[in-house]
Design brief:
The chain has about 375 residues and is of the alpha/beta class. About 35% of the residues lie in helices and about 15% in strands. Helix 2 (about 15-30) packs antiparallel against helix 8 (about 230-245) and helix 3 runs parallel beside helix 8.
């Protein structure tokens, strides 16, 4: 049996006729940029996340770098971020000339609130919280710290569509929530797409102007903006998928519950869930020593895996200039050496998952 790490065809096939109908509706409309599909999705996603506003953008990275740009954070400013985040999160900071200040993650792969205040300096202007692997971060504690020190809060919700802490959605705590709708996300489009959420009418207006060349009215440019618009076709597809997001998240919860109950191999460290911070299981991430040997074992059995992520940002070539050496952030570095994402996708069958569990439990840590 061959099991891919991820499959995008299964969720498409489940609602294929609705996606095709939405695509044809846009194609036949003759209106392809900033039309009724984008505005409809923005209203629906704002309602879903319990925020006042949503602004559709071209992708998740744009959401991040534009967020810091419009918050006025740039050269000479510092932004606190967890040391095991995906590198795009860091790029959102550095593309504006600001400096990332890394803080080690907690046992749940998210920013550890207990370590934030020691990283705050006179230059600190914001905290970037990344809800990694689908689990909500401890936002209530983080927001208290931010309020105490008068810091802005940006949430990277690229992997946490629908996750919440104590009933409050990710993307609704901070000043700005940044979302990616890359095809593999829980709420995935059929190409690149992104958005921000906010409760600020001022930020909502700024994003709408900035995403469209700095223009609120055609050919009348108020500022030097950019071209970052969610297109009508992707918005129409996202509107379909949004209707089924809760059901798809529930399916992932059930699948990961079966993993947690079924995997008994003592060599595998299973993920945990912090009390009050639920997860939509964007990834099911385990830890294992001698990871490459385990990957080869699974590959020989027809099981695919992905590493999220093998190189922490501070050790990437792109950020050598920060001067952060190996050993600076040992928790993030240990995660980078041991984490592994097991196969997980909507439409995964019990037979497929049972096979993965059986193969994992039979692993003895020896060469293939």
């Amino acid at each position: 049996m061959d099991i891919n790490a991820n499959r995008l065809d299964r969720p498409f096939e489940l609602h294929q006729s609705e996606y095709e109908e939405a695509a044809l509706r846009v194609l036949r409309s003759g209106w392809y940029i900033l039309g009724s599909e984008v505005s409809g999705f923005e209203e629906e996603f704002a309602s879903y996340t319990s925020t006042d506003y949503c602004v559709g953008l071209a992708n998740g990275l744009d959401a991040l770098w534009i967020a810091f740009r419009l918050l006025g954070i740039g050269q000479g400013d510092e932004v606190i971020i967890q040391s095991n985040a995906y590198i795009a999160c860091v790029m959102g900071i550095t593309m504006n000339g600001a400096t990332p200040v890394f803080v080690e993650p907690d046992d749940y792969y998210n920013l550890d609130p207990l370590k934030i205040e020691n990283a705050i300096t006179a230059k600190t202007k914001a905290i970037l919280v990344v809800h990694l692997y689908g689990q909500a971060s401890c936002m209530e504690a983080i927001m208290k710290i931010a309020k105490k020190h008068d810091l802005r809060v940006v949430e990277d919700c690229a992997q946490s569509h629908g996750a919440n802490q104590n009933g409050k959605m990710t993307g609704s705590f901070g000043d700005i929530g940044c979302f990616s709708f890359y095809p593999s996300k829980n709420l995935g489009a059929f190409g690149d797409a992104g958005a921000i959420t906010t409760n600020s009418p001022e930020l909502n207006e700024k994003f709408r102007i900035f995403r469209n060349y700095g223009s609120e009215r055609r050919y009348y440019n108020q500022i030097v903006g950019t071209n970052s618009r969610l297109d009508e076709l992707q918005a129409a597809m996202l509107r379909v998928r949004l209707r089924y997001l809760d059901a798809m998240n529930s399916e992932r919860v059930n699948l990961c519950g079966r993993y947690i109950v079924g995997i008994k191999n003592p060599l595998i460290k299973l993920p945990g869930i912090r009390d009050g911070c639920d997860t939509v299981w964007h990834q099911f991430v385990v830890q294992i020593d001698n990871r490459e040997r385990f990957i080869e074992y699974l590959k020989a059995k027809g099981i695919g895996t992905i590493i999220h992520y093998p190189i922490p940002p501070h050790l990437s070539e792109a950020y050598y200039y920060l001067g952060l050496k190996k050993g600076t952030f040992p928790i993030a570095e240990r995660f980078a050496d041991t984490v592994l994402s097991l196969p997980l996708y909507n439409g995964m069958t019990e037979d497929e998952q049972d096979y993965v569990i059986e193969v994992i439990n039979a692993y003895e840590g020896v060469s293939v």
